[in-house]
Here is the input.
Amino acid sequence: MDTEQRKKAQAMHKDFYDKINLAIEDGFYFEAYIREYNAMEARMKVIMGILGMPCEVCKNEDLTNAVGIGTKLNCLRSFLDNKPLFEKSKLTKKVLREINSWTQVRNKAIHRLYYNPEMYETTSRQIKEYSVKGKEYVRLIYNETERLKRLKKRKPELFIDSPSKCHVNKETQALPETCIPVIKTVNEGSVTK
Here is the structure.
């Protein structure tokens, strides 16, 4: 990405984050919640790409978009034991579990509202604290994306290609073990999955 593209991308992300802040400040918690979820899902897709996931078979746009955020979080969780990549990360397994819980609450709230619009006031009060927490998660995931991009430029040897084939279970969106790319570790010069 050249400097001009990078500036445009940064401006777009800042604008998106500013709109999340504005929505929360003005009490539009559902709008903030939806924007946060979209931002997290898009950034998780970028993180998966940086890490070489999903495999070559799954890199077609339809299938990549069909893999939900919960699956992306589970895939990322499998990488956290790789010390060279995540020793300075604030994205821990605990945080990923919290984000997963956050997305589940979000899904229930949004779907509850769809099926029962009378629940708006009650649901809105519950959503307030989650939209504020979601903003923190968005910032954390954005920062982690940038950290991994910089690390990949500085130490590309920590990242190697993903496997050539895996199969996503379309019903459960589960990625099998074979989809987790092999990552070189600096520890004792070994290669682990």
Observations:
- The chain has one domain: 3-192.
- Residues 36 and 143 are 14 Å apart (CA to CA).
- Residues 162-167, 177-193 have pLDDT under 50 and may be disordered.
- The chain is about 65% helix and 0% strand.
